[in-house]
What we know:
Elements: H1 5-23, H2 30-49, H3 56-68, H4 80-92, H5 102-107, H6 117-120, H7 134-146, H8 151-179, H9 185-192, H10 195-203, H11 208-223, H12 227-240, H13 248-255, H14 257-275, H15 281-297, H16 304-316, H17 321-342, H18 348-364, H19 375-383, H20 388-396, H21 412-439
Amino acid sequence: MKFSKLEWGIGFIFLLGILLLAYATKQDQFERIFIGFSISFGTYFLIYKQNTRFSKSFLIGLGLVAHVLTLFSEPSLTDDLYRYLWDGILLNNGYDPFEKLPIYYIENNISIRGINESLFNELNSPNYFSIYPPFSQWVFRLGAYFFPENVFFSGIIIRLIVFLFQGIGMYCFYLILLKLKQATPQSLFLYFANPLLIIELSNGLHTESLMISLVLVSLYLLISGWFYSSSATMGLALSAKFVPLIFFPVLLKKLGLWKIMLWAGIAISIFLLSFFTVTSFESMQHIFSSIDLYFRKFEFNASFYYLIREAGYWEFGFNRIAQNGPLLAGITLFLIADVIWLHSVEKWKYVFSLSAYVLVLQLLFTTTVHPWYLALPLVLSLLAGQKYMVVWTAVIWLTYVNYNNGEYNENLYVVTFEYFVLFSYVIYSFLRPRMRTSSN
């Protein structure tokens, strides 16, 4: 396999940006974050725009190499790994990670190898019950099994598992595109080499990587006629992260009432049964209480919610997140139902497109939008041949400016710029075909 000088040169620059982010950057070092993402996204878009100058092997291989190069890195933009290790250690020692808050084990001096005050101090939400569903917990358990007192090596074990699932997911992504007759190297490149996915999933180890891979396997099986295997795999996807539930109504329109009842029934049954491999019914309620608190207390990089929040300040003089969070969730459900009702899903391409729209609607009306939340709608939109989520991933990383110098201060100018870019591109994409028609 021989690459041209151009491919070697631009590939080196792209990987340099990824390596900077993965190995030489922390969450509070926005200058390095800016440089790393600017380099990697700049070359990413250049390669895509000039794709005819690059070989198929280069377009597919560059992203895969970038993922693998993160193997020995520590998560640079997140500290979730410490909670993964905490939960995994508890499971390996026969404790239920959902039963008690982390502080319980410290205050009661419970002796568990690896559970100590040093690890506790690294947890980002020590006052909340774990929110990670069972499939993710199984991965944490494997990660903590061999090196319960070593975060670095435990992280490598988890990353190897993530790589395995990502490889399966990427292959299913390719197989789905083949069935849709749109499997081009350019489409694969946009997924495999997306810098945000590389850093947030392969380096950051967010559990979206497991969930997305299982969703892709499930969708491929469903398209291929493996109905029961598809529903069982979707159950495991839900057990990695709850997010796929949001686009189940889209499949209702595609499969029909009786089929979706059977399909969803199997998936949800497997999802619920998976909890009993790691917890009890009583403790299972704690995870849902933490999710409820998530909607009522957390806010980051929101769009419409911030407008409603400001209206609340003006009208009532305080932040009404406890009321506005559930209110927006209700509005989201109404809009999702409306969008699904109005759109056709005759072809699978439309199913993926509508599923991405539904997930984006949820993100636009929620209180918290972290960069890695874009991963699943990005993948689904790419299956539909759409690029708007690529644009969003290219600007959402700017919100890491909020953590600059170790103190959290939300920069609403950056948030405004981010959504301005997104909405501008969406409007442009909508109007462009009509402008071409009118000019002809």
